[in-house]
Amino acid sequence: MQSGHCAILHKIPAVFCLFSSWPVVLMKAKIYNINKGAAMKIIKEKTNISELKQISEDMFGNLVKAVIDVEKGIIAVGGELHSDEEALLLEKGSEQKNLWGFNIYPYEKGDSFIEFDSMINIKPSSGNRTRSVDAPEIRERIMRIVEAIVEK
């Protein structure tokens, strides 16, 4: 299985491959790739909301999973899992402590536009013990970067 893809296993409901580079050994299980072809990308400069709408339609219908590097001010989008986007940013030199996962709802406005909910946000050593982003200053920083990059 290629990195950046997850799978639904036949007769095993909604099992996702968190470590897609590891070999998967299953007895007579069929693996289906549910990635509809969207490629992960790193957004470094302004992008139009229409691009995020297209990514959402290609992937989940109403949301775009995203991981932000709050130091570099860049956002990875287009992955099936936040951990896929996290891995992409780590490969490009980002530091784990600066990465935060969230969801963008491109058809929403106001507080509903961003949802802070990702497994990669659980960082007990940094004081973040939930899937959200607990520190208000980091949440604000994320929202400022998103507002600067996404043209609505």
Summarize the structure.
This protein is an alpha+beta fold. It folds into two domains: 1-34, no CATH class; 41-151, no CATH class.
Secondary structure: elements and pairs:
Blueprint: E1 7-9, E2 31-33, E3 41-43, E4 47-48, H1 49-59, E5 64-69, E6 74-77, H2 82-91, E7 99-104, E8 114-115, H3 136-149, E9 150-151
Parallel strand pairs: 4-9
Antiparallel strand pairs: 1-2, 3-6, 5-6, 5-7, 7-8
Describe this structure in words.
The chain is α+β, with helices and mostly antiparallel strands and 152 residues long. It is 23% helix and 20% strand. The chain is built from 3 helices and 9 strands. It has helices spanning 49-59, 82-91, 136-149; strands at 7-9, 31-33, 41-43, 47-48, 64-69, 74-77, 99-104, 114-115, 150-151. The strands form 3 sheets. The chain has a 5-stranded antiparallel sheet with strand order 3-6-5-7-8, with helices on both faces. It is globular. The model is unreliable at 1-37 (pLDDT under 50).
Instruction: State the share of residues found in helices, binned by percent.
Output: 10-25%
What is the number of independent domains? 2
Shape: globular
Tell me the fraction of residues in β-strands, as a range. Answer: 15-25%
Rg of Cα set: 16 Å
Q: Helix and strand succession?
A: EEEEHEEHEEHE
Structural class based on helices, strands and sheet pairing: alpha+beta
DSSP strand count: 9
- Total helical elements: 3
Q: Largest sheet, described in full?
A: 5 strands, antiparallel
Low-confidence stretches: 1-37
